[in-house]
Prior knowledge:
The complex is a heterodimer of chains A (about 210) and B (about 400).
Chain A: H1 5-13, H2 18-29, H3 45-55, H4 77-101, E1 103-108, E2 114-117, E3 121-125, E4 129-134, E5 139-143, E6 145-150, E7 154-158, E8 163-167, E9 173-177, E10 184-188, H5 197-207
Parallel strand pairs in A: 5-7
Antiparallel strand pairs in A: 1-4, 2-3, 3-6, 4-5, 6-9, 7-8, 9-10
Chain B: H1 2-34, E1 44-50, E2 55-60, E3 67-71, E4 82-84, E5 87-92, E6 97-104, E7 107-115, E8 123-126, E9 132-139, E10 145-152, E11 157-163, E12 175-184, E13 187-199, E14 202-205, E15 209-215, E16 221-227, E17 243-245, E18 251-254, E19 270-274, E20 287-288, H2 289-293, E21 297-304, E22 307-312, E23 331-336, E24 341-344, E25 358-361, E26 364-370, E27 376-382, E28 387-393, E29 398-406
Amino acid sequence: MKISKQLLQRYELGQCSPEEEHIVRQWLDSESWEEEAFDDTHVTDEVGTELWNNIAPHAGQPKEFIVPQRRWKPPRRWLSVAALLILTLGLTWHFYSKNQDDHVELNNTEAGLKWIREDSFDLALRENSSVNIDLRSDNLLLSGGMMLKPKRNLVLHDRENDMSFDFKEGEVYFISRDPDTSRLIILRQSEILFLPPIIQRQLKQQFHIS
Amino acid sequence: MRSFLSTSAYILLVVGLGCFFLVEACQSAKDAKEKIPADFTAAYSLYLIYEDGTMGFLLTDSLWQRSFEIPVPYPQFSREFIQKGGLFYHVNPISDHLIQFKLSPTGFQALDSLPIVNDNIENFVWKNDSDTLLLLNVQKGLRDTCWFYEIDTRSFSLLRKEQMPIPSAVEDFNLLSIGLSSFEKNELWVAYAYSKIVGQHDYTTSDTMYYATFDAHTLVEKKLQKDNRSTYPGGINTVQTYEARLQNGDYYFMSCPGIALGNSPSKPTAILRKLNGSDEVDAHYMLNVSDSIGNHAYGLWHLEDHNVIIRSERKDKFTDFSNHHAVFQFDYYLADLLKGSFEKLDLPLDKGTRKENVLVRNGKAYIGIDDEQQRHQVWQYDPTTGKTQPIFTSTAATSYILRLDWLDNDF
């Protein structure tokens, strides 16, 4: 039996025979949306012409495209499993690849600066310096000096002195290890003007800043 | 599900629009700061570092009652500017040009510019208090060289640019610092010192101060005096004042061997003098500041007669140069140059290494203080009563008051 509009109307009004009721229920429970369902809604030429005459004056105007909405149905179980699998694999890959980027180790024995551009920061390492930044553990190891420009807020831990420091996104920091006390000296760019002019001059020359 | 999605979309739209209008509102507020009302006459300017590290000007009226914020002309602008009669001069480090600015109701307006090799001025002098500006800077390179510029600021034209006959190094001390300069009777007097780097973050200054007198026309050196009672005379005078000329023409200056300038702290901070009419520093006069107050000092401002105000550090408060600016440690003393006495002014401890924040007007001193209570205030010191009191509080999100200027200006 074909599922017709009349049949569905009768179903809604409770006028179906037990056999018809069974067929309609079966159809509703299935996921079939075949075109055959409404095959008796044939439009005659006369009706078609009348409809066209009604809409023709508006045909040239742009109309909003309306997508027919379908009732949301829960996906099948295998689809859920596949989605979860893809999500798990995606997240694993994302964090794995991120962690690869978040570990930086650099040594500069040459004259001049060595630059690194990462997702989380830009870094310029001074000559005779080495740095190891591990964003998984937030650890910072530094000898010598560097200029750091975080691209997001960072907290780095100096294990040598067991101290943590906040670095704000967008700021520029000059960080160096005091060879005498082994303490980290951290200055924001706006604090450089307070340094003795000779140290300012040295920093400007080392990091090519004006 | 659909209702959840549409609710989320609605919330996002509302939040988004909210942020948009907030940003717009902030932008409007920022714009509003730049417009000075017609009935407002700026008398003083405070040069501030804001909490976010940016800088700007806060203008106040002569009664310290109304104030308006003005942004800096360009991001590379610094405290190392010269101001006279409401006109500002600053070397743009990007273009290496000295730019003349006028303060107008809509903010800073560039008037003219001149090329200057180097990105800072070490010392400036207004020739005979006229509109002729004399600049001394040090071109840094393999060998430091000192250059002299004479500029007519009315026509804003360069009258002269010449290399000064000042040696680039003495032995292995190869960093030249010009600390003081004065112009008298067609003679240019310059005090300088030499330093050297001794480690990644360490340097020291040789134990000698050099005072040279030059013929202002030929720049030929007429006299050279060496003084090892202290070291590092003065400092960059766009940043801070280190000298005072008394009514009778006697010229007093300070040496700064502490860690914030000369970094030869075993030498004492001293006040020395050159008497009126003499081209030599008085070998028999020295006020030993370090012995008197137990600390080094940086900054000296003439108050009245033979009294000056000095700004001194507290060695028990800071660790080294890395936190020298950030700790609340600076005291102000009233020093009597003839009696050699020092009296501490009743002011909160200040922060910020080297600040041009003492201004004397009509016999009273105005001092910008950034105190431990996070207040950023201008204090008034009246020498007739000996009383200090705050007269203005910055409402801007201030971190430091770096400068206090009197704008002899009526725009």
